[in-house]
Amino acid sequence: MKDTPFAELTLFITGPTFIRPQVRQAGLLPEFGHRDTENNLRFKPIMTNLKKLAGVGDDHQVIIFNGSGSTAMEASIRSLVADGETVLNVSVGAFGDLYHKMAVVNGKKAVQLKFEPGRAMDAALLEAAIREHKPAVVTITHNETSTGVTNDIVAACKIIRTSGALALVDGVSIFGGAACPIAESGCAMYSTSTQKSLGLPAGFGIAFVTAEAVDKAGKVANRGHSSDILGQLGRAGKFQTLTTPNCTLANQMFVQLDYIVNEEGIENRFARHEAMRDMVADFVSGLSGYELFAQKGHGSATLTTVRVPKGISVKDLKAVKEVMRAKGYLYDPGYGKLNEQLEKEGKQPIFRIGHMGDITPAMLEKYLADLGSVLPKA
Amino acid sequence: MKDTPFAELTLFITGPTFIRPQVRQAGLLPEFGHRDTENNLRFKPIMTNLKKLAGVGDDHQVIIFNGSGSTAMEASIRSLVADGETVLNVSVGAFGDLYHKMAVVNGKKAVQLKFEPGRAMDAALLEAAIREHKPAVVTITHNETSTGVTNDIVAACKIIRTSGALALVDGVSIFGGAACPIAESGCAMYSTSTQKSLGLPAGFGIAFVTAEAVDKAGKVANRGHSSDILGQLGRAGKFQTLTTPNCTLANQMFVQLDYIVNEEGIENRFARHEAMRDMVADFVSGLSGYELFAQKGHGSATLTTVRVPKGISVKDLKAVKEVMRAKGYLYDPGYGKLNEQLEKEGKQPIFRIGHMGDITPAMLEKYLADLGSVLPKA
Q1: Could you give the CA distance from residue B173 to residue B142 in angstroms, rounded to a whole number?
Q2: What residue ranges define each of the domains in chain B, with the CATH number in brackets?
Q3: Which residue of B has its CA nearest to A72?
Q4: pLDDT-derived band of residue B11, with 50, 70 and 90 as boundaries?
Q5: Would you call A224 and B224 a contact, using CB atoms and an 8 Å cutoff?
Q6: Binding-site residues of A for substrate
Q7: Does residue B352 have a known ligand-binding role?
Q8: Strands B109-114 and B60-66: what pairing?
């Protein structure tokens, strides 16, 4: 192979994330026919292990979409919101806004309940919005990647379900890194992806759907082709994907889920993420003028957002990025649009630290030490 | 890594296809941030080389969709067919039918012009259908994977464009294996994928779009999110994808397109595919009772379909598959639904030989020799 000009950086961004060597190597496993028995040698254990990781049983079916987490989210809108119904999109940041945008651009009647960046969903305001709009469907973000806020989806879904609405949850950046109370929440469809806390390359959207979702989809017209969860389930029931999957990623996912479930252990994996959240919180508390951005008690186990002191700008953070690059890291200077907005409002910008997937506390410790030496002083 | 139970088979199916060792190895190249400068080190040359391979210039823009060829095709329907307009789907097989299905399940007013399996599009019948239905948009399959028939898309698109309609072409299984007269045809959007004649794993849909398509999309409502070519182009203009791409595939695609354009050479690649088509035709002519299935003059350069003699059933072909598996191959016993239909009509089923991507004449020669010794005698 010709030499490539690509840098070998350790990704501390919020996805895609660091791929550990064993997972990269699994990319060398053989390609296969997606309608052949070889397919099921990959996807049957993949789907079984995904259900273990999700803590769901026979009440849930798993769909693997070719695409990304957005593919699964958009499918939930197209399959589960009927024309003329109101969908309420609860947003605590850019990815909550994206769920709303998906509803709008698909011609759905959509309203939004927005919270200030850094704040979590508030139950009383959710109840009020549901009383006002009487939605048939409500979407909510489990873990907002732009702000590092985790919502209490059990509480939110309880309110949503009590109103009689269906709950759809975006769990893109948390699944695989923390307990996701999918069954307990009673959400009809929970969407996630491979390239965040599962520690895999991007390429598949993943969804867990209930019988209630299946029933509802049967009453929704124009669900599209790849966005139709019923068509997808027809294949998923045979441990297949609707269209040709990326064989490399399937092989890597087979290996990685076996590792998570049978080697690292699910509880250990979740505990590791919590420990890393605490490490970053300690790090920030030791940095004069820097503050955690997420509402107290809602800091994500998989990524942390940090508000910088007065006098430090987005431009400074972009300079930090280049210094960190020279040290072999990809640093995350914050979600672009959010920082634009914050600076426009005269507020201080934030940066993010992704500590998801297969990043270890030892790797994070080294990263924080290097970052601490690079961040501008208040 | 634990031992995996996966067989190392050489894929002679019609996609996914054989991945050559250099491409597998390229999967070990580093992951990257999709909004970082590292992204462009991959996708700028990828898009440039795709345009070279497509023989298009500044009149065309390239979109890389996360998903598959179907993702690009469905986007063409959602972005370019307005509600209330008629779309005519020209079908010479299962994937032409799929384009029609995509129009129907997205709520478009769709009519179909179907040809018998094995036959190519007929210009006079296309003209008549256009006169009858007055479609605003017409879709056509360049290379029908289920029947091994290649349509003359220049002739078809000339008729379509003369009528004032937009032409959308599905080039999923041919792009990268034969000359695709995209610019000459004047089609508004040409969709293809990675896992066929490009010799890559699945994971990206690829589209070439014209200014005419961009203009039309601006007048179509409810284009969706990932299916909106305008949203996609906003990112593509920066050499990015709309959502997180599979980094492994991007690295492999960077290496593979450089190989195709600068090492193998585009013309050599196309000539190799034609030579393989001729090799298979010679092989079939030497098999008593077996016949080429595709209409004369329309046999695909990337896959060949073979009608089996009387007395040989689909069940026999499935037995051939298992014998070939034991020899290290994945053999293709024909497109399931088509063979069901053929047997129901009292006709003989077909099998397929994929000779696409990076399969070499030497590999094919060995495969045909092995297959010849296994196929049941007439």
Answers
A1: 8
A2: 21-261 (3.40.640.10), 266-374 (3.90.1150.10)
A3: B226
A4: very high
A5: yes
A6: 352
A7: yes
A8: unpaired
The string of pLDDT tens digits covering residues B259-289 is 999 999 999 999 999 999 999 999 999 999 9
Q: How does residue B76 score in pLDDT terms, banded at 50, 70 and 90?
A: very high
Tokens 């009487």, residue located:
A134
The letter for the amino acid at A123 is: A
- Show the tokens assigned to B224: 């969706």
Contacts of B249 in chain A (CB under 8 A): 201, 203, 246, 248
| Residue B288 CB neighbours (<10 A) | 8
Instruction: Return phi, psi of residue B336, to 5°.
Output: -50, -55
SS3 content of chain B, % helix, strand, coil (to 5): 45, 15, 40
Does the pLDDT value for residue A223 go beyond 90? yes
Tens of pLDDT along B180-226? 999 999 999 999 999 999 999 999 999 999 999 999 999 999 999 99
Note whether B358 and B23 are within 8 A (CB): yes
B84: region left, alpha or beta (phi > 0 left; psi from -120 to 50 alpha):
left
What is the maximum span of chain A, computed from C-alpha positions, in angstroms?
A: 62
- Give the model confidence (pLDDT) of A243-301 as tens digits: 999 999 999 999 999 999 999 999 999 999 999 999 999 999 999 999 999 999 999 99
CB B200 within 8 A of CB B192: no
